[in-house]
Amino acid sequence: MSGGPASSPAAVTGVAVVSAFGRGTEALLDNATAGRPAFGPVTRFDVTGRRVGVAATLPGDPVLVDELAGVVDGACDDAGLTRSQRGDTPLLLAVHGDPGLARAGDDERPGRSAGAMAAGIAQRCGLSSTVRAYTSACVAASTAVADAGAMIARGHADRIVVAAGYLVEPDQFGLFDAGRALATDGQVRPFSTGRSGLLLGDGVAAVVLESGAAVRRPGGAAHAWLAGWGRAGDAYHVCRPDPAGAGMARAIGDALRRAGISASQVGYLNAHGSGTPHSDVAEAAAIRRALGDAEVPVSSTKSVVGQALEAAGLLEFIVTALALRRGELPVNAGFLGPDGDCPLDVITEQPRKTDARYAVSVNAAFGGANTALVVGAP
Amino acid sequence: MTAVDALRAGAEWPEPGDPAQPPPLAGFVVSAFSPMVAAVAERCLRRGYGAPGSPRRTAIVIASALGDVASAVHVAAAVDHGTRIGPLLFYQSVPNAVAGYLAARWHLTGPVVCTSPAGDELAEGLAVARLLIDDGDCDEALVVVAYGAGPDRARAVLVSAPEEDA
Lengths: 378, 166
Description:
The complex is a heterodimer of chains A (378) and B (166).
Chain A: E1 10-19, E2 22-23, H1 25-34, E3 40-41, E4 54-55, H2 64-79, H3 83-87, E5 91-95, H4 114-124, E6 131-134, H5 140-153, E7 159-166, H6 170-178, E8 203-210, H7 212-215, E9 224-233, H8 246-259, E10 266-270, H9 277-291, E11 297-299, H10 302-305, H11 312-326, E12 328-329, E13 345-346, E14 352-353, E15 358-365, E16 369-376
Parallel strand pairs in A: 5-6, 5-7, 10-11, 10-15, 11-13
Antiparallel strand pairs in A: 1-2, 1-8, 1-9, 3-4, 7-8, 9-16, 12-14, 15-16
Helix pairs in contact in A: 1-11, 2-4, 5-11, 8-9
Chain B: E1 7-13, H1 33-49, E2 58-63, H2 69-81, H3 88-92, H4 96-106, E3 112-115, H5 121-135, E4 140-147, E5 153-160
């Protein structure tokens, strides 16, 4: 047994985000809620010869480190942190790596590690020199959030900034295309019949997490609470998920136990929902295994903004938190019809009103890595 | 008390008698990163557990400043020259993949976490492991550190909670 109730959930006091919908949380939340996808032809680099040429991207050619510094500053400002408070705040960063590493000379490489990138952003944004860079693929950001929650709950820190970023670029695009993972019809259709794969998308985000005591300062307020978290492995395959969903179900169960809630109290689940045929079936099995007969409304943010890889977990955590606060659950876009192998209550057509107090955000990655984050309404 | 105090087993690659390069690992191409991580991890797990057996709540933590640079360079060259990218590179492009190989072979059901330390790689890997153990998502953790861009060498340690915590 793991994941006893968290003695002190962490408050989400600052949020900033960049997605294909632009900079800011409102554009992301409005479009995610309505289920309006952001996919379009890739113009940022040459996709000649690729099977697929579609992604969810911002206009132009944004620079990852600049966008990361922007969201860290934005989240700290949103939380109302003083310069002094920033200086005491560690940074947990989730990235695939420095986009320039693969084309750097041997001498330049040590300065282009993800860890060095984290240290540089912390310095630029006036945070403390305590940094950690997570590179665990599609659970990198959600693992960082879980670790931040654990550090705060255990008194290792009063306040932590978690940031994450991925901007669609030609190398990962080429890899996903070679792996035949990209949707061939230009849409991501999680849990739907006729789904053909994922599409990549830009995502850069940051949150400030603080202890309950810290948030009680004058002017302090929480957008939401990180009430619980769980991390578990499949022990099944190099890259395929366990079709029985045992690892993900354990992660969800541990997160609920830490939050001290039952499955019946979960009012929404923001799924990993990649839109790939096998992954969605395994995830549906995991959700049923963890939540039993509780009919929890489900949707996937990737259906509108695509797969932001190492940043996906933070983007989806933010959408989950803001949707709960707004009381409106996002539509799962691209849905053509139910798949009998994915027996879930998928939110289609219209967003749903909710007064739920708790939601869960789930992520999975190669290597059988799974995470679940329980979000509590403010 | 630190996680180092609860060391169950340790291993390095290369150790005396080893070739500089680890043996090939089926399904992984182009780069020595995953084969070296697998080789040092296997050695450490054999010393700690003997042989694969029943599922264990053991996490896998891979700490490597640069990650799999050789694979990344290979893909970048293919992109720049317009040549074909091999499909195997798709999944080996992230360090999670070799962790998944180890987890499946040894039935390790704990979390998989990969980091790129800005400082001491082993110290960070142990700190990640200790947090996971203290937090209760695993009983033990295998920490693998790959040093350098080759990587040039690797080290693995298997750690558990100190006795007073167990």
